[in-house]
Amino acid sequence: MLLELFITLLLIHSQVLGDTSSSEEDENVSNEHEDDHKKSSSHSDHWDYHNQRSWLSAFTDCGGKSQSPIDIVTREVTYDPRLPAIKLDGYDLSGHPELTLQNNGHTLQLQLPNTMRIVKGFDQVYLAAQLHFHWGNTEVPGSEHTIDNVHFPAEIHVVHYNSKYASIKEAASKPDGLAVLGAFIGIGLHENENYEKILSVIKDVSTEESDTKITSFNVRHLLPDSLEKFYRYTGSLTTPPCYQSVNWTMFNDTITVSRKQLAALEETLKAGHNQRLSQNFRTPQNLYGRQVLASFLTSHTANAGGSSETNTFSRTRATGTQDGLTRGDILAIAFGVLFALTLLFFSMYAYRQRQKHSKSNPDSRQNVIYKPATKEDV
Ligand SMILES: [Zn+2]
Q: How far is the CA of 238 from the centre of ligand 1 (A)?
């Protein structure tokens, strides 16, 4: 009976471990998506957010050691007072030609003229190319970077390339090629009139590969009021081909949009086979010893979360899928402990029986484990 219990536990244990070894992302992949992936596996440029682990097979950089996004652990960042302040130039496009807004199947993207520049903050001048967004849905907050494991509802990335290269295409794979300015988007009580310049026409690009023209405006207003406090680290594109070419700046101050505006971002766009384009964020990647610098004292950042309306909201929305132990982990640990205890108990029992039996019948030791079980166990 004890032996049966032992074998049963062993089987359950191995099953649980087997289940938890599959990724969290895989759990969300339906058969339909798996089929899609198999069908299109010949196209190396095809990828989606459902199975992010599959990016590695077609895009080797995605498995590198300087990947983005990351979780920013505020207590572990290094305050660097020498980080130069960021100075932007040419961001006010009021009166300029119209801008192209596009649904490219992965995000909502606004093309930017390279007259928009980061003129101070880096060794070289960086020229703007495009900005885009990452978001979740009403249940899941969808920023890519996290602060102390907490996701914000959405995130904006303004992508720039090093002016020493002729184009973003040329710069994209170079170690000093790109500089991305990122900011967290939370929910506020009021409509954000600057974001409304984009979101009011989002319906016009609801289908994949569609685009529309929008009136130019001051793009600076899409970023937080203050750009003084930021985190800095070296990382990558957060989408394939995941080139490790991005000098990342994540601002500490956040932007707010109304709940209705966030819903427009989360619910309007479609991708592929008429599926909703949402949850277009990559899971935070391992730091592998990289240093995250802060332009401000970290004691401030440790207290900054949770105090504002935005942060409180994002914390309550956080689903906890990215942090702590998953249900599978807890089950695996529980069964592991049970397994160890059973093994210990079984060993002690076997030892005791062997000793008892060797005293009474030293010639039949090979039967020692099984014989007493039929005699004495109840
Ligand atoms: Zn991005």
A: 6
